[in-house]
Amino acid sequence: MRSAIFALLLGLTATPALAADGAQLFNAQCKMCHQAATGPLAPTLADVAGAKIASKPGFNYSPALKAKSAQTWTDANLDAYLANPTGFAPGTRMMVKVAKPEDRQALIGYMKTLK
Ligand code: HEC
């Protein structure tokens, strides 16, 4: 009995807690639209962290996102947009939601490395 419980505990602690990997998440969920350079599908996300919202040249942003262009992509704004794009900017053309807070944090960290 005791050894069974011990084995169970061992099994639980041996399961590695997988940290969210921003690069992996980005490649799987974002890169199909957000390429290194601005394209027809989406603006580039290089230097997006800290930049003015909807400010990449050569992309035709939605009126919804343009209406936010006086604001900056702070961590909090990025988090709110990724959690619920249409809640942050009703009418935005980006619909992709990232449900898990730790995934959003990892993606924001990764976006900061995009230059
Ligand atoms: C289906 C295509 C598509 C996918 C997938 C996608 N996006 Fe977008 N994204 C867009 C479009 C289109 C816009 C511009 C939206 C607008 O003009 O309302 C945008 C805008 C953005 C912006 C604001 C850019 C700026 O210059 O203000 C950020 C940040 C962003 N996306 C992050 C992400 C992240 C992170 C992911 C992955 C979790 C992702 N996007 C996945 C299409 C996409």
Automatic annotation (TrEMBL):
Q: Which SUPFAM superfamilies match?
A: Cytochrome c
Please name the Pfam families in this protein's record. Answer: Cytochrom_C
Q: Which PROSITE patterns match?
A: CYTC
- The highest taxon in the source lineage is Bacteria
Key words, A-Z: Electron transport, Heme, Iron, Metal-binding, Signal, Transport
Cytochrome c domain mapped to chain residues:
17-115
Q: Does the keyword Transport apply?
A: yes
Tell me which InterPro entries the record gives. Answer: Cyt_c-like_dom, Cyt_c-like_dom_sf, Cyt_c_1A/1B
| Secretion signal, residue range per the UniProt entry | 1-19
Protein name listed in UniProt: C-type cytochrome
Species of origin reads Phenylobacterium terrae
